[in-house]
Amino acid sequence: MTHMQAIQDNAACSDLPESLTDMAAILGISGTLEIVKAYGGTRLFVPKQMGVQHHLANLLGIEQARRLSSHFGGESLTIPRMAHAMRTRRNREIIRRYDAGDSTRVLAQAYHLTDRQIYTILSKPL
User: How confident is the model at residue 4 (pLDDT cuts 50, 70, 90)?
Assistant: First the structure.
């Protein structure tokens, strides 16, 4: 992990609700956000034994899924939707990519937004 990724992860962790901070400590922000994208707004049962064919193993990779299982095995976790935090993270990525040279057209296509929405995101401070 680069220094910049660590800074971004720390900023993203501040966007997480308290219920996901333990998960982020185990999986990192990327793994936690994958779970939120896949299961946000629902309850997720984490088995005590994680098989390679389990949906969490397919989503996270077997090592990450087993880490999750060793900590939360046998529990049903309520996964928040985090719509505002996910939108904030997306907008930060859009701004970062724009600053790195991506055009508004490329960004609109990549994030399934309109050019106007991209301009709006770029004009507002985060």
Answer: very low
